[in-house]
Structures are given as C-alpha cells and as structure tokens.
Amino acid sequence: MTQTENVPVAAPTDQPPLLSARHVTMRFGGLVAVDNVDFDVYPGEIMGLIGPNGAGKTTFFNCLTGLYRPTSGRVMFNGATLPPKPGKVVRAGVARTFQNIRLFANMTALENVMVARYCRTSSGPLTSILRGPKFRREERQTRARAEELLDFVGLPEAADSLARNLPYGDQRRLEIARALATDPKLLLLDEPTAGMNPQETRQAEELILKIRDQGLAVITIEHDMRFIFNLCDRVLCLVQGRSLALGTPDEVQSDPRVIEAYIGTGPETEPGSDVGSDVGSDVGSTGGREEDADA
Question: 1.10.760.10, 3.40.50.300, 3.90.1720.10, 3.30.565.10: which CATH number matches 1-93+184-295?
Fold first, then answer.
C-alpha cells in the first residue's frame, strides 16, 4: 500500500449525523460503566474513541452495536432508533470488529468473508437446501464479493488459507474484510492495531483511510495515541464512563483534562502545561486492554 495522509475535517453542519447517541447510560448493578454520553458521527468521518483502561469504551461500543441494551438513552442511525439486537443493527448498516479476534479459525479466509455476506442474501431454506437457481446465483455473487474484499484489504493470496494459519496482522485485516461484507455505512473498529508492529500499524491506518474514501464512516477505539491523532477527524475521550473532551485531534491532545487523565499531574506536570505530545508516547507504550475491565 502507498502511504496515505489524512486531512482532518470539521464536523459537518449542513447534514444530519449518521449515528447519534443521546444520554446513553449503561449500569451493571451499582457500577455505572457508561454515564450519560452524547455522541454524533457524520457520513465520511473518522471518529476516534480514547480513554484510560476501564473508561467504558468497549461497553459504549457494545451499546452502539446492540450487544448491550442501554439502561437509559437511545441510539439513532440514519434517523431511526437502532434496535438493541446485533442482527438488526448489522442489517441497518452498522458493522464492527472486536478487541479479541473472533474469526472462524477452521474456515478459510474466503469462507469467513462469505459467511458475513449472507445477511444480504435472500434465498430461503428450501431454495438453499435444493440449491436452486436463485441460491446458485447468490452464491456466485457472494463469492465474487468476498474475493473483491480480500483484495481490497490486501489479502488476495490468502483466500484458501485457514484463518488460524494467517499471521496476526492478516487476521486483523480479515476481520475488517468480513465486517465490510455486510455492506455497512458505519464501521466500528475495537483496537484494530492491538498487538501489531509499526509496519502493520501503518498498513492498518492506510486501510482505514481507504475505507473512508469508499464513503463509509468509521469509529475506532485505540490506545495508540499517535495512531488516533494522525488518523481521526474528531476524537472523543471517555473517563470513568463520562465524556471528558470532544474535538479535533489538536484540541483533544492539548486539553489539560485529557493529559491529566492519562499521565496525572505532579510538581513537574501541571494541568495546561505543554505535554500534549507526550500523551502519545506514554499511552501508546502501555499496550493496555480494557475489555475485561469494561465488562
């Protein structure tokens, strides 16, 4: 892939948001994991979601994608309330990847992508069992689309390889291809560069920009601040389940509250001091994971 540079854009004001979350709250007994969060994502926008471990990022993702039913608040997509059921969320046009890779390990890369594509086919059980003309036509279309997506993410030679035999970075890209097979308008990526080396991280960044250039909106959770601030148009920082800061990468990384949330304050680090550039190196080196803490 060639090196691609993102040009951050301000949130559009002349069109409605693609996804809009209002007062989303998620409680687990006495624990408030997500606390009254408002969130908008616009068509063609790359949105970053950051925060220390346990900030509620993955829980918030789960509320947006139907894995959790929010305790209160609502999520709107394309002007309609998004039902808290994963299958209906996918059919509405929202797809996601997970923090921990969830491929079908004993299926080939091509089969993994084809499985996701079946949410857009219409052959009934009887036609599928009898392998009638409609089934055969949709099967050819599904295979062709899966091959196209493998090529798009840079895995054209991996079609017949078992998912479990692929290198880690390729498995991450395969997950993205599988999500794209559902024909989403919005793609949510939960730590897409976790465990990657610098070269794989650059490839992931270029792939996300290619996806945006196809007209999709993207939301990504990441602990690598350099990745987030270089890639995203806007960034939301969550701390203890609450929205702490929202703005352009420059605004968020220079916000004293964000700096304090990540590296704290002390005699030599006062709120508002010029340490925004240190946030990336400090957090990016943690390799932090949050799924268990959020759950």
Answer: 3.40.50.300
